[in-house]
UniProtKB/TrEMBL annotation:
CDD domains, per the entry: carb_red_sniffer_like_SDR_c (cd05325)
GO molecular function, one term: oxidoreductase activity, acting on the CH-OH group of donors, NAD or NADP as acceptor
Protein name, as recorded: Ketoreductase (KR) domain-containing protein
Entry superkingdom: Eukaryota
SUPFAM superfamilies: NAD(P)-binding Rossmann-fold domains
Source organism of the structure: Fibroporia radiculosa
A Pfam family this chain is assigned to: adh_short
Lineage of producing organism: Eukaryota, Fungi, Dikarya, Basidiomycota, Agaricomycotina
Chain ranges passing through the membrane: none
């Protein structure tokens, strides 16, 4: 079976990815989240597909110890390694704040969860990825982290955007290093999606980019998984939008 581990899998895009992956009987999925047992949707999927197709792990990006524990547990579940690692979890804690009102302590927390934690997660699971056949590391990021597009967004989600810009930079610097081992690094903007995070942007988008429309989590997940499958192992990785087009970095 092809193995996938998806973080932030209890709701939104992560949950939709898990559900899509399970529709292929050749896939085994590990759904990692802060509180997987509280997610009725995840538990329903476990009942439907069984433990031989889906298992859950506790993985909280704000808690480094949970990453270590999750990687140890995954190593027992995946003796042949992990094919695809999808780092999807993230937070936007102060989307509506201006440069004058940003809470810097909250900003630090966003950096820890959105930028530092994904590095910790990838490092923890790399030994398993190295043993796998798919050998892909995926970061779900955002076009808000594009330096070229930054002037277009003003103060919209400025701290979240900064954390994603830093994540994009790390991924692009890490990619050629991982390529030497035959591991592909993938950066994906999932689109403006009908999630709690996406809904916070509705008013700004209506005023500034009225031509854009939100997409469903189902469409985003389907599109992102296709991008993941189509991606290649390369040095100068691009930031792909969910539809396969590239976003300026």
């Amino acid at each position: 079976m092809t193995s996938y581990l998806v973080t932030g899998a209890s709701r939104g895009i992560g949950l939709a990815m898990v559900e899509k992956l399970l529709q292929n009987p050749s896939n085994f999925v590990i759904a990692a989240a802060r509180h997987p047992n509280r997610s009725e949707d995840l538990q329903s999927l476990r009942t439907k597909y069984g433990d031989e197709r889906l298992t859950t792990l506790i993985l909280d990006y704000a808690d480094p110890a949970s990453t270590t524990a999750a990687a140890e547990r995954a190593s027992m579940l995946l003796p042949n390694g992990l094919d695809y690692l999808v780092s999807n979890a993230g937070v936007a804690l102060q989307s509506g704040e201006t440069f004058d009102t940003i809470d810097l302590e909250v900003f630090e927390e966003e950096l820890r969860i959105n930028t530092i934690a994904p590095v910790r997660v990838v490092r923890a699971f790399l030994p398993l990825v190295r043993k796998g056949k798919g050998r892909k590391v995926v970061f779900i990021t955002s076009r808000l982290g594009s330096l070229e597009l930054a002037p277009n967004f003003g103060a919209l989600s400025v701290t979240y955007s900064t954390t994603k810009a830093a994540l994009n930079f790390i991924a692009r610097r890490w990619a050629p290093v991982l390529k030497q081992e035959g591991i592909a690094t993938v950066l994906i903007h999932p689109g403006w999606v009908e999630t709690d995070m996406g809904d916070e942007l509705t008013d700004w988008m209506k005023d500034h980019l009225p031509e854009r429309r939100k997409i469903s989590v189902d469409q985003s997940a389907t599109d992102c998984l296709k991008v993941i499958q189509d991606s290649k192992c390369e040095n100068a990785i691009k930031l792909y939008s969910h539809d396969g087009t590239t976003v300026p970095l």
